[in-house]
Amino acid sequence: xxxxxxxxxxxxxRFLLHNEVHARSSVILELPxxxxxxxxxxxxxxxxxxxxHLLTLCERFGITPPTPDANHFMAPFGDFQLLWxxxxxxxxxxxxxxxxxxxxxxxxxxxxxxxDWMAKLPGQLMVASHAEIIPANQLNNLDEISALFSGNALIxxxxxxxxxxxxxxxxxxxxxxSRFLIIDKHLKKAQxxxxxxxxxxxxVYRVMAxxxxxxxxxxxxxxxxxxxxxxxxxxxxxxxDSDDSRLLDELTRLAAExxxxxxxxxxxxxxxxxxxxxxxxxxxxxxxxxxxxLQTFSEFMNRxxxxxxxxxxxxxKRFMRLSERISNAGxxxxxxxxxxxxxxxxxxxxxxxxxxxxxxxxxxxxxxxSIIAITSYVVGLIGSIAQAMKSAGWxxxxxxxxxxxxxxxxxxxxxxVRRIHKVIQKIDD
Length: 429
What we know:
By secondary structure, the protein is of the alpha+beta class. Helix content is about 60%, strand content about 15%. It contains 9 helices and 9 strands. A 9-stranded mixed β-sheet has the order 2-3-4-1-5-8-7-6-9, with helices on both faces. It is elongated and about 155 Å long.
């Protein structure tokens, strides 16, 4: 009996994370058997429809359905066994049946599934493939195997440590399916299930990785054009009489276009690299041994898939480098524009300073004239008062009164103006 220890409270996702490695266990079936595999591209809404469609199949056969949060489900459905898996961008259906005595690929496993249910599967078909595991004594030579692939060039190798040989041509045949043939030498049940899953995954992830390749080809002319635009702008920047503001506007528009391309396609290119890495790992898991005269799976992928993925990776790297170059050119151009603006500001400040000095001189001149005008006015009043007082009989000489008042009035007015200046200066401070 196990000893129980007092432990802290479990993290809410402890058991979910612990059991994640067991979520997609290997298929274990009696050998020999055949399988059909479908991979469908789905959007978020189609994912929901796909799950509901799976539930209708379970209801039809009286099978306990998966839980709403499940992304993996396997169960027997009458004459076939179904493995359903839901991924980020696609869902897969794998149908397994016991192998009959018919020739390979003449009675595919998918034939056991309900036709009306199959026709309503949501999503877009990306991969459709048949696979068969047959005994080693059923086919005698490579010519007979090649005939099953319409005479196409075979790709194959001994796999699983020599326990089997796997063959394909990576082509879609007249029935719309690609084909995998496995010759069983001494495969174990779990080993056979893992092998057939790896082959299907190689086919699915190979196609999914190539989704980025057409995009890379479409973007190549855009890269060339944008690179030429950048060279034109930087060449114009080197000219002494360049219009920096116009060049900065053109560079900003170019930067926006490049960033739009990067943000629009970064996910697809990132997914392509991830899918390609899965393909490489699945091929490594096959543990290939060369069959004389045939390309191995790894050789075929290195020659056909790797260059396409290299093109995708090169395209996104070129976009990133172009974005960096535009950023560097933009910083240089903005610096030049800032320096030009600062020079203009300095010239404007100098002009304003000169203008202020002129205003100050003019103001001083006006103030001097104002003092004289006020003094003249006040002295005139004093003269008029003195004349009136003389007429009234006062003993006063108006001329002397006017002459004496002029310096006094002039000093008083000047002091008054000075006082007003001090008050205004205090208010400004």
